Amino acid sequence: MDRIIPKIAICPSHELAEGQYRKLKMRFEGREDECLLLRFDGKVYAYINRCVHMPRRLDCEQQTVFDHTGRFLRCSMHGIVYTPQTGASISTMCEGEQLRAVEVYEEGGEVGFADFRVTGFSC
Ligand code: FES
């Protein structure tokens, strides 16, 4: 039997502009965690804010998670670069390893979580 995935609304679509991101505190798999919610090339993505190299937040050393081009995510600790679309590292270090993706939806002018592992969040 298919599992019904509850949707949790986060914000109106217009509050997440192209190339921007928001950080959300959320309850994920029963624990407090931090999520990066971002829009890239018009699509919304979400990842746990934890580098694959060490358990550091991508913005631990700088106030952004995008690199200087705005085309990639970058961990400010040692510089691993990730594709926003997959969360996969394209750096030599940890090549191919992926940020943990969180399922999200965008419909009817609203963005939200559609992931049974998420049971709540705050901004
Ligand atoms: S902790 Fe992110 S690149 Fe090392």
UniProtKB/TrEMBL annotation:
InterPro entries documented for this protein: Rieske_2Fe-2S, Rieske_2Fe-2S_sf
Pfam families given in the database record: Rieske (PF00355)
Keywords tagged on the record: 2Fe-2S, Iron, Iron-sulfur, Metal-binding
SUPFAM superfamilies: ISP domain
GO molecular function: 2 iron, 2 sulfur cluster binding; metal ion binding
Domain of life of the source: Bacteria
Rieske domain sequence ranges: 8-113
Protein known as: Rieske 2Fe-2S domain-containing protein
Native source species: Candidatus Dechloromonas phosphorivorans
